[in-house]
Each structure stands twice: as C-alpha cells, then as structure tokens.
Amino acid sequence: MKLKEKALIVLLCVTAICVSWRGYRPCSLPQDKSPCACERCLSEDDLWFMKRFNKSVEPFLSANYNLSEDVFNWWKRLQSEKGNFSTFRQTVDRLFLTVPPSPDLLESSPDRCRTCAVVGNSVNLRRSHYGPLIDFHDVIIRVNTGRIKGYEADVGTRTTHRVMYPESSMDLDNTTHLVLAPFKTVDFEWLIINKTLEIHKFAPGLMSWFIKIGLKPNSDSQQVMVLNPAFMRYVHDMWLEKKGKYPSTGFLALILALHMCDEVSVFGYGADSDGNWSHYWEKLNNKRLKTGPHPGDTEYRMIQELDDLQELRFYTGF
C-alpha cells in the first residue's frame, strides 16, 4: 500500500473517532477547555488585569475563615473602630450562629455562563432605558438604597443581591441576598439582632438605640452574605492602589461581580456632566456633591480601563 493511501486511511480513522466523541461536531486539535460557556470569559492572558485580579481572595466571610490581625487593624481604621481583635472575633463567631456558615454561590463551570449586572445609583441611569437589558442577567447586584419603583424602564425590576451597610439599609424580599458591607463591629451586631429578634415587636428599646446611632432595622431575610474585610482591603490596595480612604460600596460591588461571574455588565456609575455625584431618583440641590472619602475619579477610570480591555461592559447612560 502506498504511503499516501496509508496516511489517508489514518486521517479518516482519526476523523471518525473525533466525530463519535464530539457528537458529530467538527473535529479540531486538542485545546485548553474554556473556563466558562460565555462568548468571552474573564481573561487570564492580560497582564494588567491579572496583576490586580486575585482568585485566591475570598470575597465573603465564612465560619471557617480566620481573618488576620493585620487585616483587622487596617479595617478598624476605616471608621475609627474602638473594639479590639478579640471582641471582633467573638462577634463574628456569634454571627455565624445565626446566619449560614458559608455563602451559597454559583460555581464556575465550562458548561455555564454566569452573567452579572452591577447597577449603581448614578444620575446617568435616568432616561437610559437599560431596564430590560439589566433584567436579562442571571445575577443583578444593586447598591444601598437604589430604587426600583417608578424607575423600572431605566433600572430594571429584578434584584438578586443588594450590597449595603446598616446606615443605608432597606427592606428586602426573600428572593434577594443581603450582602453586608461591614465597616465596624457594630455592623455585625446589627445583623445579629436582625436575625434573632423581631425588634419592632419584642425589643423596642433596641430599635430606638439603633435609630439613635443611625442604623435602620432591616427585614429578616434568610439569605445573608458578609463581605470579607480582607476582600475590602484587596480592592483598596490592588484595584485602587491605596487611593482614597476606602472603596465605595458601589466599587466593592463591581469587583465582587468580577469574582462571582464570567461576564459582567456595569450600569449607573460616574458623575453627571457637571461633575456632581448624584442619584437618579433625587433632585440635586447641592451643586458641589462629591464622593467624600471615596476616590470616585479613580474608581471611574478603573471601570473605563476594564471596559477598554473587554473584561466587562460599561454602559455609561445617555
């Protein structure tokens, strides 16, 4: 048998095997399997991105996570925390007696495309008509008291996760995960009380005390997740290069989405045309409204950079 004929027979055999293995899909040379089923997954090839993105960081606290004292000392300076490390650890231990010991997350898979919409509160959402596009995503993360009623055409109707701290809390239904962004030990106490007492009925004194110090009672949602102070430091150090005092809740939510999903879309971030950082549901009276301790301009430039690198899609509004 001639050499060419032998080579043709071998090629036909290989093709037949490929067809049988792949269910009659075109055969190709072996390649690394994509980590997700999206058109484009978060890239591990971009050096700029991978210099900042750390897969090993755990975004959420869990019962088995041991926060280092070094991270605690960084965290306690954010809002002049007065408790010591021992008090903090005891409080967190009590917290996980009332909330699930670990968060329920949708794991990555080559057969799955996890899509996230992160919805900020910028006035740039007004008249954007992004609502249907936002609702199309699997995970929809909103921030603090971002409103829906009356703004559905621009912001959508669904919420799966809401990142907030007690001073900006709101009632949640039982389909929405509360993602607590803690900045002090009393924030954990707030969550413990909410999970163990119906304070409106049985502890009016506690309710008055919370209101006095600026913490609003929240409805008892069983779906609770707590941002890890180590994750908050990672966002500040790696993504913001230590600019500003600490990241905004909105920017924490955005980096959280990069760790939770394969495709991330971002809506409602940035100042208005006059440079004011106002909310889409408010009439702006203070024409000098800036971002306080948050490095708003740095955060915005980082979002633009991620969009330029196609690591996320940034919808700026109209």
Q: Give the assembly state of these chains.
A: single chain
SSE pattern: HHHHEHEHEEHHHEHHEHE
Q: Give the strand content.
A: 5-15%
Number of helices, counting only DSSP H or I runs of 4 residues or more: 12
Unreliable parts? 6-12, 14-31, 198-203
Helix content: 25-40%
Number of strands: 7
CATH architecture term: Alpha-Beta Complex
Integer-rounded radius of gyration? 24 Å
Concise account of the structure shown:
With 318 residues, this protein is α/β, with parallel strands linked by helices.
Q: Describe it for me?
A:
The chain contains 12 helices and 7 strands. The protein has 318 residues and is of the alpha/beta class. The protein has a single domain, classed as Glycosyl transferase family 29 (sialyltransferase cstii, chain A). A 7-stranded parallel beta sheet has the order 5-4-3-2-1-6-7. The longest helix has 19 residues. The protein starts with a helix and ends with a strand. About 10% of the residues have low confidence.
Write the layout of secondary structure elements.
Blueprint: H1 3-21, H2 47-52, H3 69-76, H4 85-95, E1 115-119, H5 131-135, E2 139-143, H6 152-155, E3 161-164, E4 177-180, H7 185-196, H8 199-202, H9 204-212, E5 224-226, H10 229-239, H11 249-260, E6 263-267, H12 296-308, E7 313-315
Parallel strand pairs: 1-2, 1-6, 2-3, 3-4, 4-5, 6-7
Keywords: Disulfide bond, Glycoprotein, Glycosyltransferase, Golgi apparatus, Lipid metabolism, Membrane, Secreted, Signal, Signal-anchor, Transferase, Transmembrane, Transmembrane helix
InterPro entries: Beta-gal_alpha2-3_sialyltrans, Glyco_trans_29, GT29-like_sf, Sialyl_trans
GO molecular function: beta-D-galactosyl-(1->3)-N-acetyl-beta-D-galactosaminide alpha-2,3- sialyltransferase; beta-galactoside (CMP) alpha-2,3-sialyltransferase activity
